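haha ok so turns out i had the wrong file open the whole time. this is the CORRECT one, sorry everyone. sequence first:
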Amino acid sequence: MKIVLNIILAILVFLALAAGVTKIMLMPQDVEFFGKYGFTNSILIAYGAAQVIGGILLIIQRARFIGAIIVAITFLISAVVLVMERNILVTIVTLVAVLMLGVIMKQSLKKEKSQPT
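then structure:
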């Protein structure tokens, strides 16, 4: 089970970092897609930075819970935009990632409770 959780964690870190970097770099696809829904370049960069920070925090065990919350919030925002765009398949994939982040959050809390302070 630990191996599966580590694989899920690695996938989520990759997704968060990749999504964040494309937004920070103002990739034309992201600028166009999110721009239709009121995201300015500055907002898109801040949004991408939040994803990158969340992805980095996911790597650090003591900060994993906070990182998972940050990434989950950014993915939920993306899911809302995807629903507005009527892109159901990618919305489902995004929501599955959010569910996996929930598993990481739960596991992170469990580890924190079991470790002596």
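Residues 88-114 form the longest helix (27 residues).
again sry for the mixup
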